[in-house]
Amino acid sequence: MILGTDDRLAYKYHNYRHFKFEVIDIFLYWSKLIRISKRISLKSVGIQMGYPVVQDLPYSPYIKELSKEQIAEIHHYCSVHDLGILEMLIKEKEDEISQRQDAKNKYGFSCYSWDGVKLGLNILTSTYCQETNQSFQNIKDLRTPLTSIYLKDIILGLVEFEKTPIEYSYKKDYILCNSFYALLEHLKSRTVTSTNEISYSVIQDGVKYDVKSGGLHSFHTNEIIEPDLTKYNYIDVDVSSYYPTAGVEFKFVPRQLPNLDKVLDKLRKERILDKKEGRMKDAELKKLALNGGFYGNLNQEHTPLYDPQQMLSITINGQLLLLMLCEEFIKAGIKIDMVNTDGVTVIFEKHLESEFKSVCKWWENLTNMELEEVSYKKVVRANINNYMAISTDGKIKRKGIFRKDFNEKGKREIPLGDSSNFLVIPKLLEQYFVYGIHPEEILRKDRIDNSGLHIFDFCSSAKIDRSYHVEWNGEIQKQRLNRFYVSNKGAYLYKCRESSKSHMLKGVGVMLYNKHEEKLLSQYPIRYEYYIKEINDKISELEGHHQLSLF
Q1: Last residue of a domain, one of 309, 330, 363
Q2: What is the pLDDT of residues 4-21, one digit of tens each?
Q3: pTM above 0.85, yes or no
């Protein structure tokens, strides 16, 4: 994208030296790892945004010469399809582009094509250099590589658990401990040479906790938690920006940048003030520096923050401190429902409210960190990464399979590039679990047009690599990427090559939908029975497991 002129010939920049240009590669807003692992392409992003046409390049990119007709076709393809999707993407990323303009104005960065982590890192290092009267050249090659760490040397002295008999069980991928105390003692005996060597599980008071290098999680299967709120409190407490805050409070910063904790603390306080006084753009840039710029880069060899020992110091102590909070809750008679990285969800009888407050205050004083509370009335959970939590004020927190394209505020919940197939399923799961409306009541021919759903909600998409071809309705399809919905008039969709043929959606016929035609939903030959069954199967799966007997 070219900024700064309306001249249609501006692409001939060598003849227009008086113009100033900024080139923006929006695809670099996704990290390289995400781009590769999720196979993000312009077409797949276009499908997620609801672009009306899905079309592959008409001819192989390996053709050496094209005819005039082929050139004209490719010109039309690029101008209508690629540029059309790009225009939609620019609108979707408008805030992020604007943010980089703000960063350029404030810090002087040429950052229009940087992802958030790189932008945060540069804001942080720039601020550090400014505060310490150094140039970036002074710090750019600084690193503290990992050799070996005796974990006892990095575990905070304030970490303590109630002493218990110690039992260990060595599993294939982890060590199972019988208590928090056993976990602590085993960690203190370890020497590690890699950030990936931490893998434990602890079972205490009926809850299984997974302790790994990346973070703390409790283990769950399908369950629905809906306590009687006249008798119980159901509360989630978490620490905002937990890992960056821990880095500040306990000085877990790169040893080659000894004053970085003061810089982080300064940014943290300035961000709070910016938010209070309405400087939201400045606050967001500082949030990037704190969250994206700091913690993740402790384990990145190409950055001056590289010090994996300090990353482990943050993650291990951060998890142990949360487990201390859990232990105190348990001792107070408070039931642990869920633990996830930076927070703990608990359930307790109302007469224990003062004990709950006391434990929270004790932990805040111990760590010098602040806990934030949200009260829930219902949680529907497939596992720790897939759940829907409904707060007492009606707000809904969605994770994984329960995420929708847009939430109540119109903010996209499923990030561009993530899978967004068959969105009708999470939308109607929410209707059922929040409002008690069965999918059969919505997916009826006489009601579907007033349901608020769109044909794209019934669509999925699939892409194959170049060693395969797609077959539908007995014909080989030119496109490797196809959008489709399950249809009463559909045909099987196959992924094929010479020696193999497999279903791309097993057992049901689909209608290819690579060109959108706006009409009433009732006019599409949608096989509603398929979607109803998928939704009801998920409902049965979630409801088939017993809820906590406490309720």
Answers
A1: 309
A2: 444 444 444 455 555 667
A3: yes
